Amino acid sequence: MDFESLRGRIDAVVVGASAGGVDALVTVLPSLPRAFRPSVLVVIHQPRERRSMLVDIFSARCALPVREAQDKEPVQPGTLYFAPPDYHLLVDEGPSLALSADDPVLFSRPSIDVLFESAADVYGHRLAGLILTGANSDGARGLAAVRDAGGVTLVQRPDTAHVATMPAAALARGPADFVLSLEQIADLLRRVGGGHEG
Amino acid sequence: MRASKDLDIELKLLLDAIYLKYHYDFRGYAMASLKRRMTLAADHFGCPTLSHLQGRLIHEPDLFPELLNYLTVQVSEMFRDPSYFRSLRESVVPLLRTYPSLKVWVAGCSTGEEVYSLAILLREEGLLERTLIYATDINTQALQKAEAGVYAVDRIAAFTQNHSQSGASASLSDYYTAAYGNAVFDRTLKKHIVFSDHSLATDSVFAEVQLLSCRNVLIYFNRELQERALGLFKDSLCRRGFLGLGARESLRFSQHASAFSSLVWEDRLFQKG
């Protein structure tokens, strides 16, 4: 896929990360410019403490506004949202954000699959899904849903991942449009979402 | 997107069918979660589409209770979010003591974990003897489980840890007996609990209460149904009554927000008026 053809097409990027995920996200997210237009929705597996440090960590580093996702909140462009600990994050009609306390999926809550599947349903081909480092197979099914809906699929190159299991599982389930290092992923996202042409 | 649109149509028709046939109203539920649960249910029943599931539900009423479990049951824990219960002890109980008799409503109690947690907390604080707890849900099978007060013993370790973090002075084991892999909760707790079928979507106010706990229920409703439920809560609470919501729920987007003030924001405890 030629990524020039993606410019202006992507309304949202969903991101899934697990073990090693904070460091991976620190490489990708702060490089997104203020003019980045798509919304970015992130699930990272973390302990179920009520207070998450993610917003603090990334607010300090990112040009884009960073928030913890709130139930029923309309999704804003150019904004980074993190799933709160111990809740699933979904995209609902609107598009708006929705939370659920449903059972963990693959031992995970928030679940990457739940976010990706619901986002694919709402955004269709205007969605990009990105799977990063992690030690389980969450996200494989979700990325397949993004692909089936006509969205763009990105996977961190397993040999560059802190833990290769999660990107490898996503690739085992089906091909991705782009399999890249973190630096290349950041570069691609900037080109796809940063411009005003489109 | 064609498939997705078809799914939306099927879901809408299925919800209409459920309402017409069984008078359970899921039409005001938040779509994303409902769609996920309904799709899981269709898989479980071996139905390739929601239309297929709709046909079976109309003609096989025995399926409905099982479907209801898919749509409504949440596995919770006793003393889930221990700091919520600690805040209840510290910030709400002192004010509850000023009432000669107390009524508490646990709305959407599912299989009862939260109800027993509150009953135990009130006993520990010396208030249960003058309290009546209404535990309501739309799922009668879940209510039966709640009423039984029996939980698998392998869940007790997590309950115990939560309980001790909630500021408890006693041990959780004071409140149950273990038998055949189960923990059976103290029957004297149940004397103070009324289990009852009640729908936040279709039923109305039934009592005036001093404390209302409804955690992780409103997130499953759309805005309109949330407003209805919060209106019921407002009308059910006495002046200066207390409302507890889930850790990531709020009144922020509600027209009823002005009827409440925040008592302990981190634990989503609000006070009416």
What does this structure look like?
The complex is a heterodimer of chains A (198) and B (273). Chain A is of the alpha/beta class. Chain A has one domain: Methylesterase CheB, C-terminal domain (Rossmann fold, 3-Layer(aba) Sandwich), CATH 3.40.50.180. Helices cover 28% and strands 21% of the residues of chain A. Chain A is globular and about 40 Å long. The two termini of chain A are 17 Å apart. The relative contact order of chain A is 0.21. Chain B is of the alpha/beta class and 273 residues long. Chain B is built from ten helices and ten strands. In chain B, 43% of the residues lie in helices and 19% in strands. Chain B has a seven-stranded mixed beta sheet. A three-stranded antiparallel beta sheet of chain B has the order 3-5-4. Chain B starts with a helix and ends with a strand. Chain B folds into two domains: 2-72, no CATH class; 82-272, Vaccinia Virus protein VP39 (Rossmann fold, 3-Layer(aba) Sandwich), CATH 3.40.50.
Helix count, DSSP H or I runs of 4 or more residues of chain B: 10
- What class would the helix/strand composition of chain B place it in? alpha/beta
Bin the strand percentage of chain B. Answer: 15-25%
Strand order of the largest sheet of chain A: 3-4-2-1-7-8-9
Biggest chain-to-chain interface with counts: A-B, 26 and 29 residues
Q: Low-confidence spans of chain B: pLDDT under 50, at least 5 residues?
A: none
Number of domains of chain A: 1
Question: CATH superfamily name of the largest domain in chain B?
Answer: Vaccinia Virus protein VP39
Instruction: Tell me which CATH architecture of the largest domain in chain B applies here.
Output: 3-Layer(aba) Sandwich
Keywords:
heterodimer, A: 198 residues, Rossmann fold, 6 helices, 9 strands, globular, B: alpha/beta, 2 domains, 7-stranded mixed β-sheet, 3-stranded antiparallel β-sheet, 10 strands, 19% strand
